[in-house]
Amino acid sequence: MSTATYHRSALAAQMAQQLLRPSFLDTSLRSGLFLSGQRRVGKTTFLASDLIPALEALGAVVIYVDLWSQPQANPAELVHAAIRKALGELQAPGSGLLKRLKSVTGLDLGVAGFSFGFKLAELGKPGGVSLAQAFTEVVDQAQTDVVLIVDEVQHALGHTEGDAMLHALKATRDAINTRPATPGHFLFVGTGSHRARVQELAVKGNQAFNGAVTHEFPLLGREFVDHVLAQVQPQLGDKTPSGEVTEAAFRAMGHRPEELMKALNVLRGLPVGTDANTHLPTIAQALSAAAADIELQKVEALGALAEAVFARICGMDGDARGLFTTDALRAYSATLGRDVAAPEVQAVLGQLMGANLLMRVRHGHYGVTDPLVEAAWRERQQAIALMQRAS
Ligand SMILES: Nc1ncnc2c1ncn2[C@@H]1O[C@H](COP(=O)(O)OP(=O)(O)OP(=O)(O)O)[C@@H](O)[C@H]1O
Ligand SMILES: [Mg+2]
User: Fold this and answer.
1) Which residues touch 145 (CB under 8 Å, ≥6 apart)?
2) Of 254-268, 314-328, 343-357, where does mean pLDDT reach its minimum?
3) H helix or E strand, kind and range, residue 164
4) In this structure, which residue's CA is closest to atom 4 in ligand 1?
5) CA 249: distance to chain centroid?
6) DSSP notation for 117-142
7) Mean pLDDT along residues 57-65
8) Mean model confidence pLDDT for the chain
9) Distance of alpha carbon 24 from its chain centroid, rounded?
């Protein structure tokens, strides 16, 4: 069973309005908007299917980049590449982006595309045009707003080049938005799966987006549940659970659409006459435990050293440093019963990050990517400790 995307057009239109045509109270959004929500709750889907179209409908040029698309890549390079691509399209006569812009804003460019006073290929390269300069030219020629959306923006933290890129974006925002008669604004929207880290971007004085606004990503709720139930009703028949029970199960599974579909699929496999409302809560509970388990099994599969490193990080409240100190190496060696050297730890750390289990928080600091997985790890440790005490 699968379900078509449930659109949240009204929510998207409202957000687009607040970003692009802010009332007095919403003008702080011009400093940047960060949306934080846990993993797999539909952040990317909302951006792609609802928010981007809503922003474009109001005439904005939207540039989207997902820093999680390639976890090992340099985040600054990913952002620069997305910007070069979009600006390249603006230069190309007849490109889709240019056509849409002309049709929405009524911009008169004749047949030509944009022409920039800098070499696009050098954007993001040492000595190349600054982002502030590049976007000022875009705003002036397009006579409209530019919105840069960075999905999983927390991955830019803890990278020298990522930090520099965030500061360059802040400089861009300040250069464009403070002009008294600017024909458009530069808006920055970031999303992230780790609330604390996303908030850090906006609140800490040392971060680039001091003054920006942080919101919780609006989770899918009862309307989505009803939409899904209406779609699966023909297949489930009498085994269709009630809206109330399904909503509670959806909540218990962390508002994750995929988990809901899995749970409904389990119901479908049960014999005719099964009382769905009795069984769905149990199924939901089992599935959410299983989801975190899969992630923990990935750690196990990477070997004993990976487990020891992961444990050390969890033991430090998800913001660990000093993973290579003599102390740390001695502790790994004791756990594994053999000598462990720093390069080995480095390699394992690379694997854990490649699997999206760990991420860099700041330079030299590491944390668990998914807070639910970290919580599951703690629960498991408590269970193990209890069993050891009992035996
Ligand atoms: N509005 C929706 N209607 C139907 N399915 C949805 C909707 N939003 C999300 N989903 C489904 O939920 C899953 C997760 O969605 P998505 O990748 O957008 O979440 P995310 O929060 O960006 O996840 P991640 O933390 O991995 O980046 C996908 O399989 C997607 O198809
Ligand atoms: Mg996503």
Assistant:
1) 20, 58, 59, 60, 61, 139, 184, 185, 186, 187
2) 314-328
3) helix 160-177
4) 5
5) 24
6) SS-GGGTTSTTS--HHHHHHHHHHHH
7) 96
8) 90
9) 28
Sheet with 186-192: list strands edge to edge. Answer: 61-66, 146-151, 186-192, 33-36, 213-216
CA-based nearest residue to 10, from 47, 51, 43: 51
Residue 191 Cα to ligand 1 middle (Å): 13
Q: What is the DSSP string of 40-105?
A: TSSHHHHIIIIIHHHHHHTT-EEEEEETTSSTTS-HHHHHHHHHHHHHHHHHSTT-HHHHHHHHHH
Please state whether 106 falls in left (phi above 0), alpha (psi between -120 and 50) or beta. left
Atom of ligand 1 nearest to the CA of 50: 1
Distance 275 CA to ligand 2 centre (A): 35
Ligand closest to CA 217: 1
Residue closest to 242 by CA, chosen among 251, 234, 255, 233: 233
What pLDDT, on the 0 to 100 scale, is given for residue 110?
A: 64
Centre of ligand 2 to C-alpha 388, Å, is: 39
**Pocket probe mutation, ligand 1, options 44, 149, 153, 198, max atoms within 8 Å of Cβ:** 44
Crossing angle of helices 371-390/304-314, nearest 10°?
100
CA of 34 to the centre of ligand 2 (A): 14
CB 192 within 8 A of CB 152: yes
Condensed to tens digits (0 to 9), the pLDDT of residues 117-150 reads 999 999 999 899 999 999 999 999 999 999 999 9
pLDDT class for 28, splitting at 50, 70, 90?
A: confident
**What is the SS3 assignment for 194?**
coil
Which pLDDT band holds residue 204 (cuts at 50, 70, 90)? low
Q: How many helices (H) and strands (E) does the chain have?
A: 16, 7
Q: Is pLDDT at 6 greater than 90 in this prediction?
A: yes
pLDDT of residue 26: 83
Q: Rounded to an integer, what distance in angstroms lies between the CA atom of residue 176 and that of residue 186?
A: 6
Q: Are 308 and 327 within 8 A, CB to CB?
A: no
Give residue 333's Cα distance to chain centre: 36
Say if CB 249 and CB 283 are below 8 A apart. yes
Of 72 and 3, more confident: 72
